[in-house]
Amino acid sequence: MSRSLKAHLLLVLITLIWGANFVVIKTSLADISPLFFNAIRMSLAAVVLAVAFYRELPRLTPGALRSGLLVGIFLFVGNELQTTGLKYTTPSKSAFLTGVSVVLVPLFLALFWKRGINRWSAAGVAMAFVGLYLLTVPASTGAGLNLASMNHGDLLTLGAAVVFAFHIIFIGHVTQQQRWQQITVIQVAVTASLMILTVPLAEKVAVVWSARVFWGIGITGFLSLALAFSVQAWAQQFTPPTHTALIFSLEPVFAWITSFLFLGERLGARSGVGALCILAGVLMSEEKGGAESMAVMPDHAGVPAHPEDDEPEVRT
Q1: Spatial distance between the Cα atoms of 87 and 154, rounded to a whole number of angstroms
Q2: Rounded to an integer, what distance in angstroms lies between the CA atom of residue 128 and that of residue 137?
């Protein structure tokens, strides 16, 4: 199996984990305030990664520190904007507006890095965007997503989409120049530190230390954060940012499937069509848009700075 194919499959896997986590997080938040929950599970992930990659810590370079700090700030700001915005907007709007990053990644690459996108990848992005709308915005809202009525929560969530788009782009860039293990540890440690510092300022902490809270922190800290960010950092050495954004658009599809399986949530034919559109967009880009890779990746794409790093290994 080629590294590129392995990278794409692993990105699908972590997107599945993120989508399935909605059920776990929804259950946990009944007993704990959201930002405090984020800070604890991100701190757990930072400790796990520091232990897993302890050999990398003495070899940290100034370049890796700067790069990890940059992507860590993007990760922190994106999470905080998304979580805060969700307090003032609906879940459907939040899911759709966050998914706008699938369009913003190729747009930003074209505007700021003069990177092209071929017609198949562009068609895949467009189809995935339509699918996101159908999947996340229910028909019962009448005219659908009324952008004219956007409140500050919607604007915060849209800001999160912008930040996440830059995060995807910069992760792909810095892992071409620095060791992905170091970038993973630093970005999560930076995010955890900033979350801990800002929790007292952003919310009134409330927690009941129930079994579901401990399970939620453990499962999401190990899987959706420590493992997932390690996989993302490794895989984006071999995956164009536009493809990564398209794969991440599968998150609401997996969330929809797990909600159906474990919570009995039924979203109807419209959501099913949306999910199929997203899948079709991803497959279209993967099957027909492969030539885009050389057009959008940074210099030396597909050739990691450290070729001995064949696979992400997180020993937990």
Answers
A1: 10
A2: 14
Is residue 143 over pLDDT 60? Answer: no
Q: Which residue has the tokens 């809270």?
A: 213
Of 217, 236, 266, which is closest to residue 173 (Cα–Cα)? 236
Question: What is the rounded average pLDDT of the residues 84-99?
Answer: 74
pLDDT at 288: 63
Give me the residue label for tokens 């909605």.
Answer: 22
Residues 6+ away with beta carbon under 8 Å from 50: 57, 185, 189
Q: Are 21 and 219 in contact (CB under 8 A)?
A: yes
pLDDT single digits (tens) 154-210: 888 889 999 999 999 999 999 999 999 999 999 999 999 999 999 998 889 999 999
Closest CA to 186 of 86, 59, 277: 59
Pairwise pLDDT comparison (229 vs 143), residue with the higher score? 229
What CA–CA distance (Å, rounded) separates 294 from 306? Answer: 20
Beta bridge partners of 32: 207
- Going from N- to C-terminal start, the domains of the chain cover 3-296
Q: Is the pLDDT of residue 153 over 60?
A: yes
Cβ(307)–Cβ(9) below 8 Å: no
pTM for this predicted structure: 0.81
Q: Point out which residues pair with 207 in neighbouring strands.
A: 32
Instruction: For residue 311, count other CB atoms closer than 10 A to its CB.
Output: 11
* Angle made by CA atoms 273, 129, 187, in degrees to the nearest 5: 120
Percentage of the residues of the chain whose pLDDT score is greater than 70: 83
Residue whose C-alpha is closest to residue 203's, from 39, 28, 5? 39
Residues 226-259: b if buried by 16+ CB within 10 A, e if exposed: bbbbbbbbbbbbbbbbbbbbbbbbbbbbbbbebb
Q: Write phi, then psi, for 210 (nearest 5 degrees).
A: -90, 170
Helix (H/G/I), strand (E/B), else coil: 267: coil
CA angle at 140 for the pair 137 and 145, rounded to the nearest 5°:
40
